[in-house]
Every structure is written in structure tokens, then in C-alpha cells.
Specification:
Layout lengths: L5 H9 L2 H20 L4 H12 L4 E2 L4 E2 L8 H6 L16 H6 L16 H12 L46 H14 L10 H13 L5 H9 L3 H10 L1 H14 L18 H12 L4 H14 L25 H21 L18 H9 L4 E8 L2 H13 L1 H23 L4 H8 L7 H19 L8 H17 L5 E7 L8 E2 L7 E2 L25 H9 L6 H15 L20 H13 L4 H10 L13 H6 L25 H4 L5 E5 L2 E5 L4 H4 L9 H5 L9
Antiparallel strand pairs: 1-2, 3-4, 5-6, 7-8
């Protein structure tokens, strides 16, 4: 047999090449065409996302599991807790693509079962093509922005709320200047102000707004005879009821209550001292910067004046759960509550949204949250602090007088206390049991704080020792000694307040995935870091951190704190703030309706020594405030501005039940008198028939008529 030539072999092979080449080329063309051109978004992609993804990750269902929404292009790029869902540089490595392919090491989506093959192919083609999202799709009206990845950009710093007060802003400190700004804004829209309110209506409005009470018949008669608005306002500002009305405004902001909250809701017997301090501060027109500083760091700024320790009651207003066994988490939650409230009230920022990750919308980093929290990381609770030097001397004298009797009682209680301690200790997890077994002086600062909050549960068992003793003779002997001591014990004026664990403080830590927890030192929000933080001056028994924070907040360069307070006062007077979202000055909040007026009022407020009474006086004396609240002559204005943002009519608000009864209808509230209301194991006795005890703020103990009557909320947007 003749061996075929090499050229014959080539010819034989070549016979199949054209067909095979055409098939392979056509297949590659089809595949590349499918990958290069995305599927139709409206007909293919959007229905697939809506059917398989929106249920857990969209605004329309109100769910964002894992912090992720997939109903907008920016939402996908922003991503969730694990970062962006799309990789714009390498689409084939997009976490969304890996998740729907259920690749090993990636959280599979959907978690229950894989996507149907056609749906998966549609999403794969779409992601590989860059995940285009047509603007006309009409999905997700919510604003989103790119992930910030721990960085504040120059654009973030340009947000209006973070800018200094405009150099051109003219100080506004009188009613006429307010009217000029409002009139100018109305004129630009072709509108005008309403006619003045009737004098009787004006008096009723201003009396309610400044004192929370209606005018008496004598006051109404006197004003009708001499309708001097300035004199009426000065009289109301000088009334002690002014502090009660406006003090409540502040107490609502800082979440004041006279009980612990949660299910037990135990009564706090001395919290009212903080309430009375706030009322007195408003009545005396204490400058707002000083008012704020004393509540944050009165002990550090004025350590020789124990009376200012009452102001620190602000730092004790959070909820407290008596039987919380995870004391580490409990103390952390207490510090977080203080951090949240301080950022909200003083800065108007929702910093709480950055507790676990960078804020999704505002230029606030997770690091910023814990840097602010670090200012409070040295706190310890105190319940026995005398409110004056004289009171401290009385306590020392009593301790000396009763030393022998108290020592005798301690010896009798010692064996029973050991049992009570072991019983209370056994309720905690092992790591906290070990902590309670360690002498406090051997613990680190952070451990001392957890020890103190856990030991409160042990102390509770000590205080109720006689109720758990089985030895009747010993129980009666201890009970007798306790009663004798109680009879010799005068009522001391003490306050719920705070102090510091010492000069050395442990910083809070933040743990990133796969990394060692990182301690975060005190610091201000990065977007405001141009406002330098004052030096932290460590003292013998204090870290000095809160004093530095207080000085930074009220420093002359900080634009947010005075602006936010001026806007809150405007909201209380006119019903809506110049910035309608009074506690949200971030990018999701509304911009000011009258920015020049806001800056002018802020400049006037600061130039006037941060005094609140002159600010309120100028507002209520203005003709804008004095307009009639009823206006029917121009439906176009009502349709264009139904919220009255531009003040084309006077303010109108529903009155609270508490302001509708003067004098109080005691015959309706009589069931409260001489009755014990039990909260957990303590009985809070309301035996007095005065209004003060009836107004006690307890979550589970409200005045019956206050609950029944529809109660309009003071909460701003």
C-alpha cells in the first residue's frame, strides 16, 4: 500500500475546515453579541429584579436586608454592609454577579434557592454590560449617592449646613428685620402677608406660646384697655411659667423622663432636680452656650461648684433596664444613647446612622460616630452626690453620728450579704462573674464601668435583704436596726449625676471584618474638622474630654450649634422651622426656606451673647407672627404653599390638653390622690394633691385624662 503524501493529508483535513470555522465563528458571534448588548431593561431586567430581588432590597417594600437596595443604579453602586454590589472596573467580579452564580465563599442570592436559569442569564448579561439603568425607568425616587469608603470628599464639605455664617449676613435682632426678610420673600412670589390677627386672638396665641397657659380674664381685660404688645410680651417673658413652657421644649428634645423605661419602668426619685434646673435656666435667660456646656461638662469646667452637678443629669436620661445581664452591651448602649442625643440636639445630625457603617447619604463616617462617643467613654454613674457644699457637710456629720450603728448593722448583714451576692452573681455570664469577683481597684477603666453597672443589681439585692432572709430572728433584728437608722436619717438633697472613672480612659473600639478592633480617640466629625478641637486638659480625677467637646460645640467658629438652636426656636414659635427638618441637617433634610434670615438670626443670636429671650421676643413681636391664621382671599397661595413655609398667614396649632385646663380640674384627677402606683417592686406614692406629682413623667404611669385626650405631638420632622 502506497503511503499518502503529506500534501494529500492536508487536503483531506482542509475539507472539514470551512464548515467548522463557520460554526465556531457564528457561535462566538452570538455569545459576544449577547454579552456586549445588554438585555432590554424595561422588558427583561426590571421585571426580573422586581420578581426576585425587590422583596428584600427595595424602597417600595421598605426593606434593605444587609443594608442593600437594588432599585436604582446608585443603590447598587452604594451597596450594603459588604460594600458595593457592582464592580464598575471589572464587571465580571461584581459581588452581585458572584452572588447570583452562587460562587463559593460568597453569600448566595437569593438565599433559599438559585434563580431560574433564564432570570440568571438576563442579570448576568446586564451586569457584564455595565448594569445600565435608564433614568426614565421611574424606579426609586429616593436619593442615593456613591459609596464613600471612609472618605469625605471636597464636595461633601460644600453642603450648606457646614458653611460658616455668611460674611454678608446682617445681624437680625429685632422684629422689623424679621418682617423685612419675610416680606421680601413673599413679594418675590407676588404674595403678601395676611391682615393682623384680632387683639384678643393675638394675646391668646402669645400667652399660650410663651407660658403654655391661656390668658386670665384680668389679663385679657387689661390688654383690651391698653393693647401694648411689647409690654405684654415682656410680662410673659418674666413669668415663671415661661421657664416651665420652654423648659419642657428642651426636656422633650433630650428625652427627659422620671422613670427608667422598659417594662419595669422604675421611678427615678431625684431626676426632678435636673428638670427644675432647666426651668430655672430658661427663666434666668442663661446664655445657651453656657447652658449646653454645663450639661455636658459642668463637673470639669467648674469642679468647685457642686450645684452644677445637677446639670449633668442630662447624661443620665437614657433608658435603663434593671435586669440586663449583659452589662457590657448595656453600658455600651447607654453611651450610644448619649452620643445619639448629643449629635441630634446640638448638631441636628443623624449620626446614629453611622454607628455600624458610614452614613449612606450624609458625609458622616463610622469613625466619626465612635470618635464622638469617645468623649463620653470616661463616664460613671453617681446617685448620691450632694447638690451643695452645705449638703455635703450635713452628710458627713450624719455619717460620723451613725458610724457605730451602721457598723453594727453591717456585721449582722454580712453573712446574708454573701449569700445575696452569690445569688445575684450567678445570674451573669461567666466573664461578668469573674469581673464581679475581682476587686474594683484592680480593673481597667472600661472594666470598672461595666463592674459598676452590673453591681447595681447586686446592690438592689442588698437593699432588699430582709425580704429574702429565712432566719426570722435575724430578719427582725436587721429590720429594727434599719428602721432606727432611717428615723435618724434626714432627707439629703442629692442628685442623679455622673463623674469620671479617672484621668485614664479606654477608647471605644471598632472592629472591621477580619481585622483587629481599632481604638478610636476623641474627635469631631471629619466634615467639620476645619473647626479645630480644643486641647484636652486631663485633670487628676477626670479625662477632660467632655470639657473639650463642650468648648468645641459652643466655639465661635462652629456654625451648626447656634443655627440649629435658632431654627428650633423658630419652629416652636411659627410651627415649622426655617429648615423644616429641624433634626436632620444632612443631605436628606430640607434646605432653608429663608437662608439669609437664618444666617441673620444666627449672627444676631451669637452677637447678643447667645441669649434666648431676646430672640423669642423679636419673633413674637414681629408682624409676621401677628398675622391672622385664617386666610381665604387667595386660594393660589394655599395651593402653592399649604404648609405655610413662606408665612403668608399666621401660625396655627392644636393646643395640648395640659394647656386647656387652668386651674387644673382636680375633681377629675382626684383618683390619683392618696394612691400607690406600683412599678416593679417599688411603690411610688402620689399622696400630694399638688400639680407637681400629677405631672410626673413615667412611661407606664400617665395621667388618665392625658392619655384619653388626643394629644398633638411636639416632635418636629
Amino acid at each position: 500500500m502506497t503511503r499518502p503524501k503529506l500534501s494529500d493529508k492536508i487536503r483531506v483535513l482542509d475539507r472539514s475546515r470551512p464548515t467548522r470555522f463557520v460554526i465556531v465563528t457564528f457561535t462566538l458571534f452570538i455569545v459576544c453579541l449577547g454579552l456586549a448588548s445588554p438585555p432590554d431593561f424595561t422588558r427583561e431586567v426590571l421585571p426580573t429584579l422586581r420578581e426576585h430581588c425587590f422583596q428584600c432590597h427595595s424602597h417600595e417594600t421598605g426593606k434593605n436586608k444587609g443594608g442593600l437596595v437594588v432599585d436604582s443604579s446608585n443603590g447598587l453602586r452604594l451597596g450594603g454592609d459588604g460594600g458595593p454590589a457592582l464592580n464598575t472596573q471589572k464587571p465580571e467580579q461584581s459581588p452581585l454577579l458572584l452572588a447570583i452564580r452562587r460562587q463559593e465563599g460568597v453569600s448566595a442570592m437569593p438565599p433559599a434557592k438559585a434563580l431560574p436559569e433564564p432570570a440568571r442569564i438576563v442579570l448576568e448579561r446586564w451586569v457584564l454590560a455595565g448594569a445600565p439603568w435608564p433614568a426614565e425607568s421611574g424606579v426609586s425616587p429616593k436619593p442615593t449617592k456613591a459609596a464613600r469608603s471612609g472618605v469625605i470628599t471636597p464636595a461633601d464639605r460644600t453642603w450648606w449646613a457646614f458653611q460658616p455664617i455668611a460674611p454678608t449676613a446682617v445681624s437680625v435682632r429685632d422684629a422689623q428685620s424679621i418682617d423685612l426678610h419675610i416680606d421680601s420673600s413673599l413679594k418675590a412670589r407676588g404674595w403678601n402677608r395676611a391682615s393682623p390677627a384680632d387683639s384678643a386672638d393675638w394675646l391668646r396665641r402669645v400667652t399660650y406660646d410663651l407660658t403654655g397657659l391661656p390668658p386670665t380674664p384680668a389679663e385679657a381685660k387689661a390688654f383690651a384697655a391698653n393693647p401694648d404688645k411689647a409690654a405684654a410680651i415682656d410680662r410673659l417673658l418674666a413669668s415663671p411659667h415661661f421657664g416651665e413652657k420652654w423648659g419642657r421644649f428642651w426636656l422633650d428634645l433630650v428625652r427627659y423622663a422620671e422613670s427608667d423605661g422598659y417594662r419595669a419602668d422604675e421611678f427615678r426619685p431625684t431626676t426632678w432636680r435636673y428638670r427644675d434646673w432647666v426651668i430655672a435656666a430658661w427663666n434666668s435667660d442663661m446664655p445657651y452656650d453656657r447652658f449646653l456646656r454645663l450639661q455636658l461638662a459642668g463637673d470639669e469646667l467648674e469642679p468647685n461648684n457642686p450645684e452644677y452637678l445637677i446639670a449633668l443629669g442630662y447624661l443620665r436620661l437614657g433608658t435603663y433596664e434593671y435586669n440586663q445581664r449583659d452589662s457590657t452591651a448595656q453600658w455600651n448602649a447607654i453611651l450610644e444613647d448619649i452620643t445619639d442625643v448629643t449629635a441630634d440636639v446640638a448638631l441636628g445630625l443623624g449620626l446614629a446612622c453611622a454607628r455600624c457603617h458610614d452614613h449612606k447619604y450624609d458625609p458622616l463616617l463610622q469613625r466619626d460616630y465612635h470618635a464622638l462617643k469617645s468623649f463620653f467613654s470616661g463616664l460613671v454613674w453617681r446617685d448620691d452626690v450632694p447638690v451643695s457644699k452645705a449638703e455635703a457637710e450635713r452628710i458627713l456629720a450624719w455619717e460620723k453620728q451613725t458610724a457605730q450603728r451602721r457598723e453594727q448593722l453591717a456585721k449582722l448583714e454580712a453573712p446574708h450579704r454573701r449569700i445575696a451576692f452569690q445569688d445575684a452573681r450567678a445570674l451573669f455570664p461567666p466573664e461578668l462573674q469573674k469581673l464581679l469577683d475581682t476587686p474594683r481597684e484592680q480593673l481597667s477603666p472600661a472594666e470598672k464601668q461595666v463592674y459598676d453597672i452590673a453591681y447595681r443589681q447586686v446592690q438592689y439585692e442588698y437593699d432588699h435583704l430582709e425580704t429574702r432572709m429565712k432566719d426570722a430572728k435575724a430578719r427582725e433584728e436587721i429590720k429594727k436596726l434599719r428602721l432606727e437608722l432611717k428615723a435618724e436619717t434626714p432627707t439629703f438633697a442629692t442628685a442623679q449625676t455622673v463623674s469620671e472613672v479617672g484621668a485614664t480612659v479606654d477608647n471605644p473600639t471598632v472592629a472591621k471584618r477580619g481585622k483587629k478592633p481599632e481604638p478610636i480617640a476623641p474627635g469631631v466629625p471629619t466634615v467639620l474638622d476645619r473647626l479645630g478641637l480644643p486641647a484636652i486638659q486631663v485633670r487628676a480625677n477626670s479625662s477632660g474630654r467632655r470639657a473639650a467637646l463642650a468648648q468645641w460645640l459652643t466655639g465661635p467658629e462652629n456654625p451648626l450649634v447656634p443655627r440649629v438652636m435658632v431654627n428650633r426656636v423658630w419652629q416652636r414659635v411659627f410651627g415649622k422651622g426655617l429648615v423644616a427638618t429641624t433634626s436632620d441637617w444632612g443631605t436628606l433634610g430640607e434646605k432653608p426656606s429663608h437662608p439669609e434670615l437664618l444666617d441673620g438670626l444666627t449672627r444676631g443670636f451669637v452677637d447678643g451673647g447667645w441669649k434666648l429671650k431676646p430672640l423669642i421676643r423679636a419673633m413674637v413681636l414681629s408682624e409676621t407672627y401677628g398675622q391672622s391664621s385664617v386666610r381665604l382671599d387667595n386660594p393660589a397661595m394655599r395651593d402653592a404653599d399649604s404648609d405655610n413655609r413662606y408665612l403668608w398667614r399666621g401660625p396655627s396649632r392644636q393646643r395640648k390638653y395640659a394647656t386647656l385646663c387652668s386651674p387644673p380640674p382636680t375633681h377629675l384627677i382626684e383618683p390619683w390622690a392618696d394612691r400607690a402606683w406600683v412599678m416593679r417592686r417599688h411603690a411610688a406614692l402620689f399622696t400630694s394633691k399638688s400639680g407637681a406629682t400629677r405631672a410626673t413623667r413615667c412611661w407606664l404611669l400617665s395621667m388618665p385624662l392625658m392619655v384619653c385626650k388626643p394629644h398633638p405631638s411636639d416632635c418636629p420632622r
